[in-house]
Structure formats: structure tokens, C-alpha cells
Specification:
The protein has 7 helices and 2 strands, in the order H-E-E-H-H-H-H-H-H. By secondary structure, the protein is mainly alpha-helical. Helix 3 packs across helix 4 and helix 4 crosses helix 5. The protein is globular and about 45 Å long. It starts with 8 loop residues before the first helix and ends in a 5-residue tail after the last helix.
Length: 173
């Protein structure tokens, strides 16, 4: 962790541990085992690089920056499941936001709007679509749910393919 963000360490430590425990509970050996600050500097427009073993946190990321209290646990889970593949310096919304919201709901069993995200109208739209995707996911047997979650996470961490399409089995197109 950089000195600049040292003050956030206390809150991150307890919520990060809780998030890792929850992720391990649902992902087993595929779960990340640590939370670290992402200090890598990548060129503008490049595709982000993510770790399967560590949740990489950027304190300037809207979700992390806006998270307070228990929302920080949600934010760490969100970034561990769908960290984001918008090119460096760009902002993106849509499918990743829906997949991220569904992933956090799947881990926690409760749909929570991510902090620091867009306008209230856009947030409502993401939440509405996330509820529909979650309902479809919930209808599947647990093994199929896990398969879709793992496919979504693989697409999200590699930034190859579409996380929401993987989560919906290609039905989102």
C-alpha cells in the first residue's frame, strides 16, 4: 500500500478479510487470497491486467472511493469478481456493471447497488437488469450457477470475452 492511502488501510483490512472469506466460501480454491493496492502504471488506452490470486484495489476507482463501512466489503467482492476491462483512462458502464452487481448478490445473497456508480437513473437501470439476470441464474442448479460465475470471472480477469455474456450463457446478446 502506498503512503498516500495508508489511512484507508484499517477499513480495508477488516472488510478485505471479510470479502476474501466470503469469496472463498463460494469459489473455494479459485478465490483470491489477498487484497493489494494496484500501483501498476499502465499506458493510457491499454487493457488492464488483473490477478486471479489478489484483488487489486485502486483507491481512485469510483466504487472503492465511494465505499463506506460495509459497502467496502461489497466493493472488494465486486473487484474480486469483475474488476473492469475498460481501457486505462476510459470509463465504461453497462454489461460489466450488471455482471458485477449480480456477482456481489450471488456471493452475499442480497442485491446491493454498488457505491459511486453513475447517475441514479442509470443505477436503477443497472439494478433492474441485474435483478433479471440474477433471477435467471438463481433458476439454475447450483453447479451450473458456479460454472457461469467461474466463466464470468475468467472473462473479467482476462479481459477477453464479455463477463455478462459468460454469466448469462450468451443470452444477453
Amino acid at each position: 500500500m502506498t503512503r498516500t492511502h495508508q489511512a484507508r488501510l484499517t477499513g480495508l483490512a477488516s472488510h478485505g478479510k471479510k470479502a476474501l472469506r466470503l469469496l472463498h466460501g463460494v469459489l473455494g480454491r479459485r478465490a483470491p487470497v489477498s487484497v493489494r493496492e494496484n500501483t501498476a502504471v499502465q499506458p493510457e488506452g491499454s487493457t488492464p491486467r488483473w490477478s486471479r490470486k489478489s484483488v487489486l484495489i485502486d483507491f481512485d476507482d469510483d466504487i472503492i472511493a465511494a465505499a463506506k463501512g460495509e459497502e467496502l466489503t461489497w466493493a472488494v467482492i465486486a473487484k474480486g469478481m469483475v474488476p473492469g476491462c475498460s481501457p486505462v483512462g476510459w470509463s465504461g458502464t453497462g454489461g460489466e456493471d450488471i455482471a458485477r452487481t449480480v456477482a456481489v448478490d450471488w456471493v452475499l445473497g442480497d442485491l446491493n447497488s454498488m457505491p459511486g456508480q453513475e447517475s441514479p437513473n442509470l443505477r436503477r437501470e443497472v439494478d433492474t437488469q441485474a435483478r433479471a439476470v440474477r433471477k435467471e441464474l438463481e433458476a439454475l442448479p447450483r453447479a451450473k450457477q458456479l460454472s457461469r460465475i467461474n466463466a464470468m470471472r475468467a472473462a473479467a480477469l482476462s479481459c477477453e470475452g464479455d463477463a455478462l455474456d459468460a454469466l448469462t450463457g450468451g443470452a444477453h446478446r
